[in-house]
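Design job #97: recover the sequence.
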């Protein structure tokens, strides 16, 4: 049901000062508190509306990197504890992979996140994860809709990542671009 509201002549709704979503896509197995704080500082510097911490399920990690990780719920609980201690309303811990309890391809995760959170989308990744993402066939489709922020300068750059160098940057090299 629609409701009519009255506003004074010439009224313009306030422009949202915060926009977009910063998605920290990681295992969070060895992520330090300082690294999480760095993501929060990017959230604040660039005025993103939300920082989404997206921990990967063990099956996803096993298929992507073969590295051993603790159970999803232990890592997720640590992130919730950290978020509660910060009392920051713009931080969300996304537990979707924990509900799925199985391998989730990055494109499925990105589709889910794009449906749930406001655009533009910035993916905050380690260089290793970024190179792995670039190796997937769906990378070229996604890189046109998202931007990447890498935690540090990669020592090895995947050819597709090199091809789309204008769509990513390292965390310390903010060039003032926020539009996607």
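Job complete. Output follows.
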């Amino acid at each position: 049901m629609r409701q009519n509201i009255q506003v004074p002549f010439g009224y313009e709704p306030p422009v949202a000062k915060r926009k977009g979503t910063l998605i920290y896509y990681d295992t969070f197995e060895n992520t330090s508190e300082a690294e999480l704080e760095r993501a929060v500082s990017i959230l604040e510097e660039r005025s993103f509306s939300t920082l989404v911490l997206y921990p990967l399920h063990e099956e996803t990690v096993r298929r992507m990197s073969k590295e051993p990780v603790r159970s999803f719920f232990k890592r997720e609980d640590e992130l919730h504890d950290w978020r509660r201690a910060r009392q920051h309303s713009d931080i969300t811990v996304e537990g979707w992979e924990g509900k799925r309890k199985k391998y989730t391809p990055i494109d499925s995760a990105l589709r889910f996140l794009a449906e749930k959170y406001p655009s533009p989308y910035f993916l905050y990744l380690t260089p290793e994860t970024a190179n792995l993402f670039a190796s997937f066939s769906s990378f070229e489709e996604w890189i046109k809709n998202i931007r990447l922020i890498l935690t540090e300068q990669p020592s090895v750059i995947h050819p597709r990542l090199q091809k789309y160098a204008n769509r990513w940057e390292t965390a310390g090299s903010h060039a003032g671009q926020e539009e996607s």
